[in-house]
Design a protein that fits this description.
It is built from three helices and 13 strands, in the order ααββββββββαβββββ. The chain is mainly beta. Strands 2-3-4-5-6-7-8-9-10-11-12-13 form a twelve-stranded antiparallel β-barrel. Strand 11 and strand 12 form a beta hairpin. The longest helix has 23 residues. It is globular, with a radius of gyration of 19 Å.
């Protein structure tokens, strides 16, 4: 809980600066080469990485009870470690994502599954004809649930991911990884948590409404995907707080029960990174 409290405080501290960036950012400037390079070189070292959300929901097509209705929240941050570009125009980043499942309807309100996902890697912004079109990440990351015995889950991976802006409203993304599985209790994790992911996200011209779909391919030759559908609506114009709906269908939503199938819808609030989200 001490780690969780520290991360929540850090997230709250960084949100005002991120909000200021969004309010002052001109739509044309947001994809201009010089402004993006300045943002990487002189912008805040600390900021959001993936979506940061707090959502509550229940399963679809099942009996709804206190055991399967819960809160899911994610805290995801990034710290730039280099002042200027490294070879090939890259920047070194430290990443950290923490995901939690919190059964608030049960006695004592236990947090049933905590997933820790630190990483370090290189980020390269992509420019075409003096326009920012996306970025590529090469990351060495670890994910585990911090438990021991038969409840322990742990794996590592070298991941290569990218986000490409087809236009300011449409982004496609993909991520592939080389797994290094060290957890004794999850040798078959690729059968459930997948071997790569692809997806797309869309925002309206006024940037008030957005939608995203992510498909995570499970191991094997069959068309077996974990599917994540997300909708978000900006509460106030120029703000970085959105009403958020997430639908998860598949396996591997959390590490502890990665072999269990879940079809769950949750609603709540999300804080999103500038320009586009990482997945």
């Amino acid at each position: 809980m001490r780690i969780l409290t520290t991360l929540l405080m850090a997230l709250m501290l960084c949100i005002p600066s991120l909000r200021a960036q969004i309010v002052n950012l001109d739509p044309e400037q947001s994809v201009n080469t010089d402004s993006i390079r300045r943002a990487f070189d002189s912008g805040p070292y600390f900021g959001l990485y993936k979506d940061n959300y707090f959502i509550f929901g229940c399963p679809v097509g099942q009996h709804i009870g206190k055991d399967n209705t819960n809160i899911k929240f994610q805290i995801s941050i990034a710290q730039r470690l280099t002042n200027s570009t490294l070879p090939l125009g890259t920047y070194l980043f430290l990443f950290y994502t923490q995901k939690c499942f919190w059964n608030v309807l049960q006695n004592s309100m236990p947090m049933t599954d905590l997933n820790f996902n630190p990483g370090i890697g290189l980020t390269k912004p992509l420019f075409v004809r003096n326009r920012f079109v996306g970025k590529i990440n090469l990351i060495l990351e670890h994910e585990s649930n911090g438990r021991d015995g038969t409840a322990s889950r742990s794996w590592n991976r070298v991941s290569l991911g990218g986000n490409i802006m087809i236009d300011p409203q449409l982004t496609v993304h993909g991520k592939f990884w080389i797994p290094i599985i060290d957890g004794v209790e999850n040798k078959d994790i690729l059968d459930y948590c997948g071997i790569y992911q692809i997806g797309t996200s869309f925002t309206t011209l006024n940037e008030r409404f957005g939608a995203a779909v992510t498909l995570v391919k499970r191991k094997g030759w069959r068309l077996n995907y974990n599917t994540i559908v997300e909708l978000n609506y900006r509460i106030f114009k120029g703000d970085n707080q959105y009403l958020f709906l997430q639908y998860y269908n598949g396996y591997g939503e959390g590490l502890l029960a990665f072999k269990e199938f879940h079809s769950t819808v949750r609603v709540g609030i999300v804080f999103k990174p500038r320009l586009f989200s990482d997945y």
